[in-house]
Amino acid sequence: MRRLSELAPGRPGSIFTSDLSVNEFLLVREAGFKPIGLVLGSSIYHVGMQLGRWSRNQELETLSQAMYHARELAMTRMEAEAAALGADGIVGVRLTVEAREFGKDVAEFIAIGTAVSGDTAPPGGGTWRNNKGQPFTSDLSGQDFWTLIRAGYAPLGMVMGSCVYHVAHQKMGSVMSNMGRNVEIEQFTQALYDARELAMARMQAEAEALHAEGVVGVRLDAHNHRWGGHTTEFFSIGTAVRPLRPDHEIERPTMVLGLDG
Hints:
Blueprint: H1 2-7, H2 22-30, E1 33-46, E2 58-59, H3 61-84, E3 89-99, E4 106-118, E5 136-137, H4 142-150, E6 153-166, H5 172-178, H6 186-209, E7 214-223, E8 231-243
Parallel strand pairs: 3-5
Antiparallel strand pairs: 1-4, 2-6, 3-4, 6-8, 7-8
């Protein structure tokens, strides 16, 4: 809190801190936002244990909930720091998971980004904050953030979905029958498809709760962490966006062709 108080806008002698590159910083300023300070949230979390059936594809819901909740704690604490600074949003957010030596099931979940305030209100009035009254969050680069604002859209928040899934082992008879053959392993295909679908659907549900028009910059990552080869976390994340004007449409360039082609 002492560090944040020194970053408070309007405080004599206050300076901003930012992990934006020079180009990103200049483009964020060009987009009409002033950096206030680096904000972060952290959660050191013990991820519990859940066993999956050896021969069954199934989500490990206890682990899915743990991985989601730990990230949510880190994000919420970062957002609280931004709110304490009176920020309108957080740009360039990085959300990482780092294993710690406290134990094999212990990891630190870290969220960090640059809190910003808008120089002016959004076109059409209102506020840059999302419909929950919280500063927006975005993991877009400074360049992509500038493009988004110039195109008439605003970020609402980072949305995410997690699914930890146990992929069934093959029976010995199947392993032997497939040796030397080109053949799809359908139970593996179905398991990975289902797991990704669950992660994506949960991310989409978060975007709908923010009344977003869509989600940009989506990433769908797979992490084994320390669970072994048959248990994987599928994690989807992106930035939910809204148009700055209800009737907004992106202008498309018009191509003019000469008579010769």
